[in-house]
């Protein structure tokens, strides 16, 4: 099983390089269901893996002028603030048993199911907006964007995601970035979000650095492959494919939690 996990590490980077998001969508299930880590540790490790991998991806996209720093900082600062606070203070105080009656709901199950539900909404939002984007562009205020990205940060902090699957729809729909520039900008945002969020975990969990660094190294290899392949992919197909990928992974998590 570990071999499949390490192959999955390369796939994590591949997905990040191709889509600018979705790394955590693979990372958390692989760490939980293949490498058999508990969800709390897995979500913490996911932040480091996705964050470190995204640094390399963001730099490669910067060299191609595919990073919008203005929108990057606008989205990153509120979100990484919320992520750090969530990982440092909120996640540790969630009780191991959330509900006992009329059914048992454990903290680990709650986090994985919450992750899947957010993924479903994000994917459906992208698919729906894709069909409706011929109308008048939305005008949104700076205050709205700050509040929105702070709330995204709270969600990301709970599920241990880099947030690309939530950030990319916002960059496309509200910042009006073309898909490939949204991908590069998303990697820049995720690098900050994830690594700052991981700092909130360092004091709360024991970290197996040997495993974490080896897994992350394979993911970095994958992102270079993904960035290379990205140049051959049509933007419209990439956006649609990304949305369906998020939806399929959400269904897989719900299946593992409730059926398997």
From TrEMBL:
It is a multi-pass membrane protein. Coiled coil: none annotated. The chain crosses the membrane at residues 7-36, 42-59, 71-90, 110-127, 139-162, 182-199, 211-229, 241-259. The keyword Lyase does not apply. It is found in: Cell membrane; Membrane. Keywords: Cell membrane, Membrane, Transmembrane, Transmembrane helix. Belongs to the 4-toluene sulfonate uptake permease (TSUP) (TC 2.A.102) family. This is Probable membrane transporter protein. It comes from Flavobacterium ardleyense.
């Amino acid at each position: 099983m570990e071999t499949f996990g390490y192959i999955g590490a390369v796939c994590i980077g591949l997905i990040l390089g191709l889509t600018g998001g979705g790394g955590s969508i693979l990372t958390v299930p692989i760490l939980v269901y293949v490498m058999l880590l508990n969800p709390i540790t897995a979500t913490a490790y996911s932040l480091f893996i996705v964050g470190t991998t995204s640094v390399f991806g963001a730099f490669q996209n910067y060299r191609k002028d595919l990073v919008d720093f203005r929108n990057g900082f606008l989205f990153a600062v509120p979100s990484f603030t919320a992520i750090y606070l969530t990982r440092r203070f909120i996640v540790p105080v969630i009780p191991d048993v959330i509900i006992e009656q009329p059914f048992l709901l454990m903290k680990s199950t709650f986090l994985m199911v919450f992750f899947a539900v957010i993924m479903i909404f994000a994917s459906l939002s992208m698919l729906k907006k894709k069909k409706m984007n011929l109308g008048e562009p939305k005008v949104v205020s700076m205050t709205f964007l700050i509040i929105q990205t702070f709330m995204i940060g709270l969600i990301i902090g709970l599920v241990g995601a880099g947030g690309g699957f939530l950030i990319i729809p916002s960059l496309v729909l509200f910042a009006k970035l073309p898909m490939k520039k949204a991908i590069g900008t998303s990697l820049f945002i995720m690098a900050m979000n994830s690594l700052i969020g991981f700092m909130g975990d360092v004091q709360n969990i024991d970290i197996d650095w040997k495993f974490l660094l080896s897994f992350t190294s394979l993911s970095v290899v994958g992102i270079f492959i993904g960035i290379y392949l990205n140049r051959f992919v049509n933007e419209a197909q990439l956006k649609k494919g990304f949305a369906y990928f998020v939806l399929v992974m959400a269904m897989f998590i719900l299946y593992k939690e409730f059926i398997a």
